[in-house]
């Protein structure tokens, strides 16, 4: 199965899906995508994901220490962008754009399931990641 | 008006927090032969900050609070100089000044002195002092940062207070930041909830800097941004009146309240 097909299947249950792209960070290397005619149209999403997931000190939310951030949700007037970091390898990122109509919690949950499904189905060894 | 170097202020106060809690001494600015001033530290707390040329300013601040005629103040001042005593503490000991007013004057003066010292971004050099200073009062580095912000960014403090009061979320830790320059540096403006150290605020500001940068890549600032950790905790961030707020949410209910507030009203 090619990567774009795997993304399409994994994101099939994301409500209001507009486009999605799987990238390798920190360079933003495009591995596959759905919903966009040109890779160029995905560039802002890819660059935003790189900004969010760039290595930097993380704040501690609880007193017992800091945990890494693996999901960013950016809510705009008409769109929601979800950035999911690979749970097995932080270099992998799934960036999903949805319209604003569906419930935010449902979008979040569906994107978490999607990144897990992609890590299960896509052979990431070719890019030096554990599969 | 002093142009405050906020990164330098935060860095030097972080340096104070990094000292062992049982040491005392001075963090001096400038060349060893021509010290521009120093932070006097006792057991991890700031006693006061002094900058060359601002001695007169402290005298004025003390006089503002003290019920003491000019001539008497001059006499006490001269005596303190000759006997190498601290003016403020002498005024308190002799009944001219209330201890709380001394604290207010020292905090204000320390804020101004620190801003002056950090404006030159001179490296701070630590010199321990075994017997300490035994001050009447001392402050945490976070309190000193609060004072610098209150002195030099009062409009931001007022805007943050209005936003945070309106939220009515007393159990959530929320920090407010202002952008500093084109490189999207963030300077702390306010912290709501359980006290945070300067080091914690510095880490949070470095982390949060990515949010405006990500918004810039997408062409506009998000109404709300949620960042979730592997343990399920979330930082909710939003912009209001030019300030970036970050709320550290450990419970789903806190997050729901913030999300409803920011996403409830949709543009028509």
Could you please describe the fold and organization of this structure?
The complex is a heterodimer of chains A (131) and B (268). By secondary structure, chain A is an alpha+beta fold. Chain A has one domain: Beta-Lactamase. Helix content of chain A is 28%, strand content 27%. Chain A contains 3 helices and 5 strands. Chain A starts with a helix and ends in a 10-residue tail after the last helix. The mean pLDDT of chain A is 92. Chain B has 2 domains: 6-144, no CATH class; 153-263, Beta-Lactamase (2-Layer Sandwich), CATH 3.30.450.30. The mean pLDDT of chain B is 88. A 5-stranded antiparallel beta sheet of chain B has the order 6-5-9-8-7, sandwiched between helices. A 4-stranded antiparallel beta sheet of chain B has the order 3-2-1-4. In chain B, helix 1 (6-18) crosses helix 5 (99-119), helix 1 (6-18) packs antiparallel against helix 6 and helix 5 (99-119) packs across helix 6. The longest helix of chain B is centred in the middle third of the chain and has 21 residues, at 99-119. Strand 3 (69-75) of chain A pairs antiparallel with strand 7 of chain B, so a sheet runs across the interface.
């Amino acid at each position: 199965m090619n990567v774009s097909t795997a993304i399409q299947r994994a994101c099939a249950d994301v409500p209001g899906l507009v486009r999605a792209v799987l990238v390798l960070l920190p360079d933003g290397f495009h591995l596959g995508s759905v919903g966009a005619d040109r890779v160029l149209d995905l560039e802002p999403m890819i660059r935003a994901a790189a900004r969010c997931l760039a290595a930097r000190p993380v704040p501690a939310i609880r007193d017992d220490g800091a945990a890494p951030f693996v999901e960013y949700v950016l809510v705009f007037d008409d769109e929601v962008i979800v950035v999911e970091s690979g749970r097995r390898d932080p270099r992998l990122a799934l960036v999903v754009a949805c319209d604003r109509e569906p419930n935010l919690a449902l979008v979040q949950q569906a994107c978490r399931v999607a990144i897990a499904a992609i890590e299960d189905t896509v052979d990431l060894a070719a890019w030096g990641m554990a599969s | 008006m002093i142009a405050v170097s906020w990164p330098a202020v935060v860095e030097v106060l972080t340096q104070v927090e990094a000292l062992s809690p049982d040491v005392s001494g001075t963090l001096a600015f400038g060349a060893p032969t021509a010290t521009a001033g120093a932070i006097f530290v006792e057991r991890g707390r700031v006693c006061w900050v002094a900058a060359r040329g601002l001695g007169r300013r402290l005298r004025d601040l003390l006089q503002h609070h003290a019920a003491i005629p000019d001539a008497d103040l001059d006499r006490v001042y001269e005596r303190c100089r000759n006997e190498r005593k601290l003016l403020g503490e002498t005024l308190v000991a002799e009944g001219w000044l209330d201890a709380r007013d001394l604290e207010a004057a020292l905090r204000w003066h320390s804020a101004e002195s620190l801003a002056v010292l950090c404006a030159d971004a001179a490296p701070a050099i630590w010199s321990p002092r075994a017997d300490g200073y035994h001050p009447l009062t001392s402050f945490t580095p976070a309190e000193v940062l609060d004072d610098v912000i209150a002195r030099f960014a009062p409009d931001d403090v007022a805007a943050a207070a209005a936003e945070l009061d309106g939220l009515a979320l007393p159990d959530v830790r929320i920090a407010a930041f202002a952008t500093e320059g084109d490189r999207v540096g963030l300077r702390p403006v306010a912290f709501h909830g359980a006290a945070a150290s300067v080091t914690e605020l510095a880490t949070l500001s470095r982390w949060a800097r990515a949010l405006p940068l990500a918004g810039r890549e997408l062409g506009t600032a998000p109404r709300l941004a949620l960042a979730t950790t592997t343990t399920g905790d979330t930082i909710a961030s939003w912009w209001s009146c030019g300030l970036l707020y970050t709320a550290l949410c450990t419970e789903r209910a806190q997050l729901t309240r913030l999300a409803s507030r920011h996403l409830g009203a949709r543009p028509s």
